[in-house]
C-alpha cells in the first residue's frame, strides 16, 4: 500500500516537474504546484525534485521549511491563518493569536487532534486597514477582537 502511494506521489511529482522545469527559477513554482496537487509537499516528492533539478535534498528541504506557505503534512479540514505582519501586530494580533491557540489547544503549524483545524501564520493578507486580520478557508476576516476570534474558531470547528 505504501509503495503504491509513494509511486503515485513520485509519478505525479515527476509530471509536475516536467511541466514546470523549463521556467527560470523553477523550484518555487514546482513546490506551489505540488502543494496544490496534494494539499502539502510530501516527503517523497523531495528526492524526486532534487534529482530533477540537480539540487541536494537538503537544499530542497531548506526551501520548503523556509517559506511559511508550504506544509509538510496534510492540513485539517479547515485552515485558519492569522496575520503576523506589522500592521496586525500593532493592532493586537499577538493577543488574538494566543487566544486562538488556547481555544484550539495547538500552536502554529499544527492541526487539532480531531483533524478539524490547521492553524497557520500568514504575513499580510492585504487587509492592513482592517487589522488584525485572519483568513478562514480562503475567506478574509478583519478587525478581529477576542469575541470575533472565538467565533472564527467555533466556525472552523463546525
Ligand atoms: S499586516 Fe496583517 S493584513 Fe497586512
TrEMBL record:
Entry binding sites for [2Fe-2S] cluster: 83, 88, 124, 128
Cofactor(s) listed in the protein's UniProt record: [2Fe-2S] cluster
Protein's UniProt keywords contain Iron-sulfur: yes
Cofactor binding summary note: Binds 1 [2Fe-2S] cluster.
A Pfam family annotated for this UniProt entry: 2Fe-2S_thioredx
Keywords for the protein's UniProt record, in alphabetical order: 2Fe-2S, Iron, Iron-sulfur, Metal-binding
GO molecular function: 2 iron, 2 sulfur cluster binding; metal ion binding; oxidoreductase activity
Cell inner membrane in keyword set: no
InterPro entries in the record: NADP_DH_HndA-like, NuoE-like, NuoE_N, Thioredoxin-like_sf
Assigned protein family: Belongs to the complex I 24 kDa subunit family.
PANTHER family listed in its UniProt record: BIFURCATING [FEFE] HYDROGENASE GAMMA SUBUNIT (PTHR43342:SF1), NADH-QUINONE OXIDOREDUCTASE, E SUBUNIT (PTHR43342)
Protein name: Formate dehydrogenase gamma subunit
Amino acid at each position: 500500500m505504501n509503495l503504491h502511494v509513494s509511486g503515485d506521489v513520485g509519478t505525479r511529482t515527476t509530471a509536475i516537474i516536467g511541466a514546470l522545469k523549463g521556467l527560470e527559477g523553477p523550484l518555487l513554482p514546482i513546490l506551489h504546484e505540488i502543494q496544490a496537487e496534494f494539499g502539502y509537499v510530501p516527503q517523497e516528492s523531495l528526492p524526486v525534485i532534487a534529482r530533477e533539478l540537480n539540487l541536494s535534498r537538503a537544499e530542497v528541504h531548506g526551501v520548503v521549511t523556509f517559506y511559511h506557505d508550504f506544509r509538510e503534512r496534510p492540513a485539517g479540514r479547515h485552515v485558519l491563518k492569522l496575520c503576523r505582519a506589522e500592521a496586525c501586530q500593532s493592532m493586537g494580533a499577538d493577543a488574538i493569536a494566543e487566544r486562538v491557540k488556547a481555544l484550539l489547544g495547538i500552536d502554529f503549524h499544527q492541526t487539532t487532534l480531531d483533524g478539524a483545524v490547521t492553524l497557520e501564520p500568514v504575513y499580510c493578507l492585504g487587509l492592513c486597514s482592517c487589522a488584525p486580520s485572519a483568513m478562514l478557508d480562503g475567506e478574509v476576516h478583519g478587525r478581529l477582537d477576542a469575541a470575533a476570534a472565538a467565533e472564527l474558531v467555533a466556525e472552523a470547528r463546525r
